[in-house]
Here is the input.
Amino acid sequence: MITEVQLPDYYQLLGVKSGATQKEIDRAYQMLISKFDSSGKKASSADEPTLKERIEAAQEAYDTLSHKEKREAYDAVVEVKKGNVSDEPKKSSGPLKFLGVRENARKPRHQNVYQDFFGFSEKPFDLTPDPKYLYLSPKHKEVLAHLVYGLQENNGFLKIVGEVGTGKTMICRSFLRELRADFNIAYIFNPCINELELLQTINMELGIPGKSKSRKKLVDVLNGFLLEERSKGHRVVVIIDEAQDLQPKVLEQLRLLSNLETDTEKLIQIVLIGQPELDKVLAKDGLRQLRQRITIKWELLPLNLEETRGYIQHRLNVALGKGKVRFSRQAVETVFRYSRGIPRMINVVADRTLLIAFTQSTKKITPKIVKLAVSDIGGLVPLESWADKFWKLVLPSALVAGLAFFAVNFFALPDHKKSAPGGKDISALIQENPMDLSTPGELVPTSAIHPVVPLVAPPVVSPVTPEAETGNTPQRRIPSNRPLSIFDPEKLVTYLSSLTLMESKLEAVKWILEAWNVAPEEMQGLNETDLEMIEEDHRLSSLEVNGTLERLKSLNYPAFLEIALPNAQGTKYLALVSIRGDTGVFGSVDKIEMPLSIIDSLWTRKAIILWKDFENLPESIGVGFKGKEAIWLQKNLRLLGYFQGREALLYGPKTVQAMMELQRNNSIKDDGIFNTDSKLLLYNLLQIYSTPKLVSQ
Here is the structure.
């Protein structure tokens, strides 16, 4: 049964029609927010909403209408309330959680063929750029940082290039969603236009007159608008996607627009986003003035293997598929080889892989399934592995060297048979004068010495190399029996630099697995594949946390931290096993005790926690949820002194209030939703579940 909910008219609030496009919705939202920002109007009565409430309502309307499934669900509910839907009972058409409506186990109308099998809320590897799926790899973070820096510093031109499918449009859309009311954006996604059409498009995107066929009038209107926006403290940005298709004359027109400025600052900023061919276009002699004005430039490169692994897992998590499908390490490597780390091609290969896995009724993705998907797609050329390069380069070189040696030996070396004394060959000379090799010393013929009594062979002493004497030979660290104490960050850097990334990760994970009582024999010779199997066997899930030590303390689980060593020495991992005051116990090859301040400058603020969902609870439980899990939660909240009253199947206001109080008292987000953070916290606080503690009570 669906709860009656008062729905606001989101279309009327934004001032758009029910069939409005995303572009129209974006423009209406920006204009509405800018009006709020510039009006300064306050509520005239207690019943009238405040400015903050109106902005929040506009934000909610925009988020709903910009999200495909949310918009469909909203439209469906509106139709029901209008009485345009038959009264016959039928299955629900989509997730209505965002409306505060009970979902009641109903499927979306546009269900993907394998979506229900894997338990996804939506298709995880869709090709349509969706900002919520943005995976911020180090490369993407750098691009965003350059965009933000360029706009903050009011640079005239910014340029971002990247290969086809590397995520340029995704970055751009995510960036636009984060901008607030003090920016006016003209987003041009069709660059196949002339100079006049460029000016018309920019003006119309900014909501000012743009139908004139006079370039002078268009520029005059734009200049007046820019001066007015600058007086309000607003900035104007023109973003051009697929800029490599711009004609040189259009680029020159953009350069002339950048001349619109005051005595102290630019009035308009221009961002060019395109493929590597954009550099070839800009390299033309006629555009040298434009090249000089591009002060911020960056290239978005494909993902590497580790980033590809994180990208795939991120998209699965967003689609609520965490733990429901698993790509093996070798399967991810195969996806990486054939996609070459390009996000769009990762989506293509992964989507077809899930389809084939669905036809085989398996949720474990192996290299064999990925190769079937690649074969089905066709036309994908894999990256060369080291073995491919060996057979292609080293082996032919070795064959050539072998042939050359044979030729020299056959044609150039002297004939020893003819050159030996008396015309005898060397083998005959050796038979006549055999050498006694039984004792060390000078080699002399046996006929010249007397028989000797065999002596006991002296002990063999390994030669000492200069490197071994000086201690410069890299040695694998041998575990110490006693804890190591480190008080200097440089010593920690030296310690971790002796390990590879994977070695440091596996050594750190061993300490976390030991805290979860995994038997030592299961960790003998541990590799990444074994780690996946151990996690699966012990029902352990991984949670990536970005935050501070206080956040880790509030969750209260051991974690392994990502450490960035200085001077390009790479990334390592270190287990944080326990905390006592300002001192932490860490785990790597050795057990390490050191002040928490030591890692402050090296920790990237990324940590991974292994945890166990003992009761296999739903991903998230919020208001309106109905089921036995609500009773379980209420009973345990009562044990901890947070819940009062009778248990019920409904996750109602009392449960929400109790959950918020629990969250506040333990320094986690108090939204009243029983999500992953709250699960970790509750399992940790209840004595009936055996969980390791980061901070002992």
